[in-house]
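Worked Example 4.2. Consider the chain below.
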Amino acid sequence: MTRSRLSTTLAVCLLSLLTSAQTAHKQPSKVAASDHKLLSIHVTGSQRYKPEEISASTGLKIGTVASDDDLKKVTKELGETGLFTDVSYSYSYSGEGTKLELQVADNDKLVPTHFENFVWFSNDELIAKIKERVPLFNGQVPVGGNFSDQVSDALQALLLQHSLGARADYIREGTGEDGPIDAVNFRANDISIQIDQVSFPGAAPDVEPALAAAARKLHGMDYLRSSVNAYAKTTLLPVYLDRGYLKASFSEPQAKVTREEKGEIEVDVALSVTPGIPYKIAGFSWVGQKSLSVEKLQSIIQQQIGEPANAAKLNSDLEEIHKLYGTLGHMAASVKPEVNLDDTAGTVLYQMRVQEGEVFHLGDVDIQGVDAKLADRLRDAWTLRETDPYDSSYPKRFIEQSWKLLPTGLNWTVSIHEALNEKDQTVDVSLRYGLKP
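Applying the procedure from the previous section yields the following structure tokens:
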């Protein structure tokens, strides 16, 4: 597990040392152990934590003895958490004891934590129980430092309290391979937690059957918060979007243990839904089209003004428009609908932003899976030329028209592969022939 090391400034300032007058030939007396009794801890510099929270995290107790090494160790440990970009200390001591001054600078680059499958606690309970062991935990952690390890250790202690043979661990998650870390996900490993029942608080009775059908694949799945969220977004949310509920949303899943036996756990999952209001279509407007007329584009949209907005139908229509542009060589064309909602009227106006992109031409044509003589015959029958705008519908038509060139009595298969070359705006086509067993 990668950890970044934080440079910690240890500034020790000896403000005063009271001693008795000594003659020149006598050795100075040593400071008594009582001089290191901790009288107070004063913390400055943090906007995120209260001074008493940072004081509590040091483990130092007022009235106990704290040596120089103790103070250095505390400062070093605070710096290694990654919560602060700088930690320094100073102290003064006298015959009464030591007064400690801690100066810190907050690390502003913290990310949220997610708890994947600690199903024995609610999210708030988990944060509270972790905070008992890790006083500075508030639901966020730094990407570097050892603070995530401290949280993981606290979670491990909770698992042990419940006599569970699971292992607490975490992963840092971000967008893409090289993207920034945007969350740290904690998970209990080496334990089986499966979903039994799924409910939808807030769903109307007429929508519940469709939700139940869409949620069928969740039953028996391993429970992970992120997996359930992803399933809700891709499979359950369209149940509402296709009925015009364009602002519908699901809350974080709430899991409740219903059976716990021999290391196998079953949970019921509640996915609360806020449907919002249904919207009807008020109209469409088009911006950016050049090669195709507004009338042609609008004719592909199946939905009419006054009908409930249906996200699935709209996406299907936009895919047909993309294919149509492909027949004109606009292989990178896109149409993105901007949604303008009128909550008072319960309507939606779509502004369709078209980006046609450049016109692509034919690149290389590669024919595989047949002998050289047959490949030459097929290549001669190919009529789309490099000077022509590429037509994405042509390869399929070519296959249908060229079956007569293939040897009869055999069960042929063929697949089409297109590769776009953005630099020179060409499309390489590969036709791969084969025989079914």
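The longest strand covers residues 84-93. The two ends are 49 Å apart (CA to CA). Compare this with Example 4.1 before moving on.
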